[in-house]
Design brief:
Keywords: Membrane, Transmembrane, Transmembrane helix. This protein is α+β, with helices and mostly antiparallel strands and about 250 residues long. It has a single domain, classed as outer membrane lipoprotein receptor (LolB), chain A (Clam), CATH 2.50.20. Helix content is about 25%, strand content about 35%. A hairpin with a 4-residue loop joins strand 2 and strand 3. It starts with a helix and ends in a 16-residue tail after the last strand.
């Protein structure tokens, strides 16, 4: 009985610590104003990352956090996602595709569909980390200008009211006022139970097609993007048209 009593005391203590920690760390969604200031800041951010060059980028490849390797044909809305022994080719419009496991194509349609769905979710997450600034004016987004205490910082709150894997997620971008480049983001997303979790947005590189990409995101978990290459079209890819498998 004494052992049970101490177990209960420990459980109560851990629960109390968890509640207190959550109360301290969880932040409410900030207030902001829609309108011209929000849209001007959105324009400033898009110009800073050279969004026009991103739009002209036909294909981009990258490694996400040493977990997933991607080749994304932006022109044709196709993607290849690779991890471990899996190579999954996806039509992003229909979320259908082909699955290669250990060099052999899976014939079972149910197994293929499950792998394609998993790969699509990886792509949706990892491509967001690649260049979310390009998505701040996506259909279904709302933008609010948020005042900050730092005169050198501007802030834009972007909420995705529809589309994607987790509609309803919000991101507060902290932007260097002089350059227009974001240096951090705070998140209110379904996948993270705490609101306002912050990641840095740093170590910017310029790709072959002249778009700017931040490769380091330091936060509760540090994420790094490596092996970033961009191409004008699939014709410029060294391997050629890898998506013929989807024909």
């Amino acid at each position: 009985m004494k052992a049970l009593k101490w177990i209960l005391i420990i459980l109560v203590a851990f629960t109390a610590i968890g509640v207190i920690t959550y109360w301290i760390l969880d932040k409410p969604l900030p207030d902001g104003e829609p309108g011209i200031k929000a849209e001007n800041l959105a324009d400033k951010m898009l110009q800073a990352v050279n969004d026009s060059a991103w739009k002209e980028t036909g294909v981009i490849s990258w490694n996400f956090a040493n977990k997933h390797q991607h080749i994304w044909d932006k022109d044709r809305h196709l993607a290849k996602v690779s991890w471990e022994e899996y190579d999954i080719y996806i039509n992003l419009n229909t979320v259908t595709g082909k699955a290669i496991v250990k060099g052999k194509q899976i014939k079972d349609s149910a197994a293929t569909a499950e792998l394609v769905k998993e790969a699509y979710e990886y792509w949706a997450n990892d491509s967001f980390w690649l260049n979310p600034i390009a998505k701040i004016r996506d259909s279904g987004t709302e933008r609010l200008y948020v005042d900050t205490e730092n005169p050198e910082t501007e802030s834009l709150l972007v909420t995705y009211t529809s589309g994607g894997i987790t509609p309803g997620d919000s991101y507060q971008w902290l932007v260097d006022k002089s350059s227009g480049l974001p240096f951090a983001v705070k998140m209110w997303v379904q996948i993270i139970p705490l609101g306002g979790v912050e990641f840095t947005w740093e170590n910017w590189i310029r790709t072959e097609t002249n778009a700017l990409i931040a490769t380091e995101h330091l936060g509760p978990v540090d994420l790094t993007l490596t092996e970033i290459r961009s191409y004008s079209s699939i014709k410029a890819l060294e391997e050629g048209d890898i998506f013929k498998i989807l024909d």
